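Task 17 of the worksheet. Students: predict the tertiary structure of the chain below and write it out as structure tokens. Keep your answer in the requested format; marks are given for formatting as well as content.
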Amino acid sequence: MPDFTIGAGHRVRLAGPVITSIRSSSETQHHRPVSSDERTADLSEIELPADLFYTPEHEWVQRVGPSSVRVGITDYAQAQLGDVVFVQLPSVGEEVTAGSSMGEVESTKSVSDVFAPLTAKVIAVNGVLEADPEKVNSGPYTDGWLVELEVSSVEVLDAAVSEMLDADGYAAITTE
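Model answer:
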């Protein structure tokens, strides 16, 4: 089985079918995964909303205020991880640094770091995940969000998101 990287330097050996291609357009796309053995697989379709920003470490970022964002892991990442059984998140008020681990997602297959997409202060955590971590699987872009972060100004946030990937850019890195 191939390895999958979720976060800087963290590789996971997969035990099942692997998604080998994702495409995107201006609207949310659903993509049928392909098994590395049969080139077809019975996995759920992968969502890739065009209105979000993405990181190479498989986090998504949604602007929710002038200087704040909501962060989660992508549908692609949760599909590769398998059933999420535990989520460790930073505390409200904690400062996180871009590129550094700000938490962990534990699945039945592995434990993976979640990396801060920007340097910011944690202003909210999704407390629902403490009792229902599987929401990361069932709704990675909705009920399964992880944290909300706030930076010092609109300009700082504009600069940070301008360096992130759009849906097409993220789709390109998942097929490499």
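Marker's comment: The CA atoms of residues 14 and 36 lie 11 Å apart. The radius of gyration is 15 Å.
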